[in-house]
Amino acid sequence: MDIGYMIEIFPKLISTLPISLLIILTSSILGLMLSIVITALRIKRIKFLSPILEAYISFMRSIPILLLLFLVYYGLPVFFSLLNLNMNDLSAIVSAMITLIIFNGAYLSEILRPAYLAVEKGQHEAADSLGYTSFTKIRKFIIPQMAPVALPGLGNAVIYLIHDTSLVFTIGIVDIMGKANLIMANSYGENKVEVFLTIAIIYWMVCLLSDRFIKLCENHTYLRKIENKRAFNSQSLKLHQKFTKRNIKSNLD
Amino acid sequence: MLAIRDLHLSFNGNEILKGIDLTVNKGDVVTLIGPSGTGKTTLLRCINCLENPSKGEITLSDLQLNYETISKKDILKLRRKTAMVFQQFNLFKNKTVLENVMEAQIIVQGKKKEEAYKKSIEELEKVGLLDKLESYPSELSGGQQQRVSIARALALEPELILFDEPTSSLDPELVGEVLRVIENVARSGVTIVLVTHEMSFAQSISTKIVFMDKGVIVEEGSPQFIFEDSNNERTKAFLNHFKSNQTVGV
Which keywords does this chain's UniProt record carry (chain B) (predicted)? Predict the structure, then answer.
């Protein structure tokens, strides 16, 4: 093990992190937006659309992400040329993003839908009966109540997404994994373990950050607020008891 | 003030309501009684369009609507004239007691925060829950939750309050506190339509009792008439059943 070498290649690898982050952020945000639309359409149970959506979700969940990546990268230009559109310039990064967005659109809706269904019907009825518009109802009551149910699943999904970006080097994107391959090729296959270990550490750091972010979101859910309140009450009770005991003692002294 | 004409409603081909006519005057306390599965709750839920009747007309003060042609806007107008108290309370779980009572006033009615706050405090005081302002519904007993939900309804100053079996999911020892609150509401002159199985309570607070069975109104009249003087076989059978149940102590 050559730790000096690991420290030497670390800046080279980290310099490609912005590309990975760009792919991760874009596909998680747009993927989430797509999944919200898909979830809403699935919940509305539109006659002709529902079977199509179910087929789309089943397809996306069934095929390996690597295969999907190839299908989009090689398939989309062919598909567009059939429509007489020239899309040969579709860059690898855009292909990677499209792949991850359509994959996560399906995958995340499998997390959002049960979270939506977990909100009791009575909550809808109460808001309806008070005269809230459906948009305000969803914003004020339904999404806040979905959040504690959905966030752990969404957190996992982000971690899977981070892992999935390690495949985009296969279509020629120089992300962390791509850079690692270049470094290994330049050093004639020497020090492979050091390179892999270094990028493992980088992925770990990125996942820790995303975990932090999800925890931060979870701390803002109403369930956590109630928990915190209880914890605070019992803590202040303990403090109170502690100090009153002390007072009694000092009085005795 | 409220008039329903020829209301029909079906679920999967089963006709639940088979032509209901109901009139409620301002200040009335109208109680719907009858066996389970008769459509009392369904009828109540038709008044604020939580159900979709297949046919019928409703008039609520200046609103005159036909259920077959009702638009989303009309539904919203109808709902903003009424308020409902549910069997399962249905307080917003992600809001505190104060927020539950305050928010609809601000968001739905466009009141100023300060005004909504004053009104909320006033209503919460009436139901005796001023010490729970910052509590979440999950921290309250069923009886307390139902009292908050009554305060939430009253704070909107609706023309009509709908009570849907407000004590049916409460522990027996908590029923009294909620009934007392409803009694005060009734005394204050608010128009009420109530569904309940608390017969003696219905008899004491109602101005009119409506007896329903199998999707139709069998008869209606003053509490005195329904509970004492009715000659209708179905009404008598239903009320006798209650009396015998009560003596057994069920």
Answer: ATP-binding, Cell membrane, Membrane, Nucleotide-binding, Transport
pLDDT values of chain B reduced to their tens digit, one per residue, 250 residues = 999 999 999 988 899 999 999 999 999 999 999 999 999 999 999 999 999 999 999 999 999 999 999 999 999 999 999 999 999 999 999 999 999 999 999 999 999 999 999 999 999 999 999 999 999 999 999 999 999 999 999 999 999 999 999 999 999 999 999 999 999 999 998 999 999 999 999 999 999 999 999 999 999 999 999 999 988 999 999 998 877 655 444 3
CB contact under 8 A, A145 and B93: yes
* A135 at interface of B, judged by CB pairs closer than 8 A: no
Q: Answer yes or no: do B83 and A141 touch at CB < 8 A.
A: no
Q: A89 and A78, same structural domain?
A: yes
* A177 shares its domain with A209: yes
Is the Cβ of A232 closer than 8 Å to some Cβ of chain B?
A: no
Token pair, residue A100, equals 């991850």
Asked if A48 and A129 sit in the same domain, the reply is: yes
CA distance B74 to B60: 11
Cβ of A129 within 8 Å of Cβ of B76? The answer is no
Going from N- to C-terminal start, the domains of chain B cover: 2-248
Nearest-5° Cα angle at A209, A203 to A210: 90
A102 and A191 share one domain: yes
Pick the CATH number of B2-248 from 1.10.150.320, 3.40.50.720, 3.40.50.300, 3.50.50.60: 3.40.50.300
Tokens of B130: 């001023």
* Main-chain dihedrals φ then ψ at residue B133, nearest 5 degrees: -50, -40
Range of the domain at A242: 223-253
The alpha carbon of residue A204 and the mean position of all alpha carbons in its chain are separated, in whole angstroms, by 15
Provide the ipTM: 0.91
